[in-house]
Specification:
The protein is of the alpha+beta class and 245 residues long. It has two domains: 5-59; 82-213, no CATH class. It is built from seven helices and ten strands. A hairpin with a 7-residue loop joins β1 (5-11) and β2. α5 (147-161) crosses α6 (183-193). The mean pLDDT is 86.
């Protein structure tokens, strides 16, 4: 009996490697690594995940921290960087000194990034009463949670439990004050306590300062790839019509 449906739980494939986790309804979980497929029952998959968490702790790849101390979406995106991680330090920073990455989508599927101070982000503006931009903002993670629900839940958590709660800090890389995780936390803190407030942040330091981000360079690469894709599609369309004639 074949499975009635397949849900992709995660796809971390690159140009060189394939890595996909699938929920095969009726058959449980499959992990695809290149041409290899590993089959798990649900219980086996959960046990496998537990073993991986324990291995990360035993190897001390997170330098004294546990995977449960971090947002799971951030940790998934950060996974390729972990082997270069030299240390994790906690230091105080003013919210006014921090910058945020905000995504901007254009017609034709082009998505670029821009860097803004905390008080110009859609999340902060929402908390100040300017709601439209944030409600229309397209998230790049937490796909099953609405922007508004997520932000208000975080606001309530910080009011009730303070910051950082369960060790989850605003995270920066190397010497950049660019928030890599915790933009919503920064917006809530700025709204509640003001931009000049000081709070502890977590700074990931990597060997040879790897994994710092140049938004301008990233946008150039994305635009170049987008133009190539558009040009290729246009050439295919022209070729098809010429051959058709």
């Amino acid at each position: 009996m074949s499975n009635p449906s397949v849900i992709v739980l995660d796809n971390a494939s690159s140009n060189k490697r394939r890595f996909v986790i699938e929920d095969n309804i009726g058959e449980a979980i499959h992990i695809h690594i290149d041409n290899l497929r590993i089959d798990f029952t649900i219980d086996e998959f959960l046990e496998f995940a537990k073993t991986l968490r324990e291995s990360l702790n035993n190897l001390e790849m997170l330098h004294g921290y546990s995977p449960t101390d971090f947002d799971e979406h951030f940790l998934r995106l950060c996974a390729p960087c972990i082997t270069d991680l030299k240390e994790i330090v906690i230091e105080d920073a003013s919210l006014s000194s921090l910058e945020c990455i905000v995504h901007k989508e254009y017609k034709g599927g082009l998505a670029l990034e821009k860097v803004l101070p905390v008080d110009q982000t859609p999340a902060y503006k929402y908390l100040q009463g300017e709601k439209d931009e944030f409600l229309k903002y397209n998230q790049f993670n937490y796909w099953n949670t609405a922007n508004e629900v997520r932000l208000l839940a975080l606001h309530k958590s910080i009011e009730n439990h303070g910051y950082p709660y369960k060790k989850q800090h605003i995270i920066l890389f190397n010497n950049q004050n660019l928030i890599r995780d915790g933009q919503h936390r920064a917006a809530v803190l700025a709204h509640l306590y003001g931009l000049d407030s000081m709070f502890p942040v977590m700074r990931f330091r990597f060997h040879q300062d790897r994994h710092s981000l140049s938004v301008g360079k990233e946008n150039t690469i994305k635009t170049y790839k987008w133009l190539l894709k558009k040009g290729y599609g246009r050439l295919k369309w022209i070729g098809k019509h010429l051959l058709g004639k």
